[in-house]
């Protein structure tokens, strides 16, 4: 399953309107050579990604509303706004309400081409809503519920009871090794690597990024 954010960048026109580009106050990315060294993309791939990014976001930055618009298009049968909000926050590593091309492509590189450990660390960061270095049940429930809402009733037509909560309870039972009510990064990574079903679930969630 290709990632919506990756597809979004590939839905680019063949030509960028240079005159429009010249008239706008733009953020230009750091040298592509530097990004090539920092990511798992080639310079040619970065050029394609940047063209797509600039086509969709001429100012050179993405805001939260853009994320919500992308996900509304890819998941028309559900409500993707909450998930898009949390995903935007995970990409917005500078906490300034906007995402530059560099931030975007660094996250995309991890999600598409990173090691299992790197992907799990990124996913942990997504679930750690308040960024205190731990995941609690409320945070995990928020994200899981947002994913169920986004996938919509056509994907999960006959949910009985509070399935997101049941899902999280089962996860927490396996992850919270010392039973202190929170999951650390190491507990999260270890549990996912030890449990094939949990790893598959995490990869399922990754596919909606």
UniProtKB/TrEMBL annotation:
Q: SMART domains of this UniProt entry?
A: EFh
Instruction: State the InterPro entries in the record.
Output: EF-hand-dom_pair (IPR011992), EF_Hand_1_Ca_BS (IPR018247), EF_hand_dom (IPR002048), Recoverin (IPR028846)
| Keyword Secreted belongs to the record | no
Supply the Pfam families for this chain.
Answer: EF-hand_7, EF-hand_8
The principal location of this protein is: membrane
Q: Which keywords appear in this protein's UniProt record, sorted alphabetically?
A: Calcium, Cell membrane, Ion channel, Ion transport, Membrane, Metal-binding, Potassium, Potassium channel, Potassium transport, Repeat, Transport, Voltage-gated channel
Give residue ranges for domain EF-hand.
79-114, 115-150, 163-198
Q: Is this entry keyworded Ribosomal protein?
A: no
Q: Which GO terms describe its molecular function?
A: calcium ion binding; potassium channel activity; potassium channel regulator activity; transmembrane transporter binding
PANTHER family named in the record:
CALCIUM BINDING PROTEINS, KV CHANNEL INTERACTING PROTEIN 1 B ISOFORM X1
Q: Which family does it belong to?
A: Belongs to the recoverin family.
The name of this protein is: Kv channel interacting protein 1 b
Q: Which organism is it from?
A: Cyprinus carpio carpio
């Amino acid at each position: 399953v290709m990632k919506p954010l990756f597809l979004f960048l590939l839905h680019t026109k063949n030509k960028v309107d240079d005159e429009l580009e010249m008239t706008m106050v733009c953020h230009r990315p750091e040298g592509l050579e530097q990004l090539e060294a920092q990511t798992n993309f080639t310079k040619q791939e970065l050029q394609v990604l940047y063209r797509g990014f600039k086509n969709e976001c001429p100012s050179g930055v993405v805001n939260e509303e853009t994320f919500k618009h992308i996900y509304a298009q890819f998941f028309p049968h559900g409500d993707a706004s909450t998930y898009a909000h949390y995903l935007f926050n995970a990409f917005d590593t500078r906490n300034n309400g906007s995402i530059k091309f560099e931030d975007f492509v660094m996250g995309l590189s991890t999600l598409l081409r990173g090691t299992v450990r790197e992907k799990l660390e990124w996913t942990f960061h997504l679930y750690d809503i308040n960024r205190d270095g731990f995941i609690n049940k409320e945070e995990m429930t928020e994200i899981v519920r947002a994913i169920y809402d986004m996938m919509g009733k056509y994907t999960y037509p006959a949910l009985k009871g509070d399935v997101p909560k049941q899902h999280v309870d089962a996860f927490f039972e396996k992850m919270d090794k010392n039973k202190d009510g929170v999951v650390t990064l190491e507990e999260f990574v270890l549990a996912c690597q030890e449990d094939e079903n949990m790893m598959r679930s995490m990869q399922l969630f990754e596919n909606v990024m």
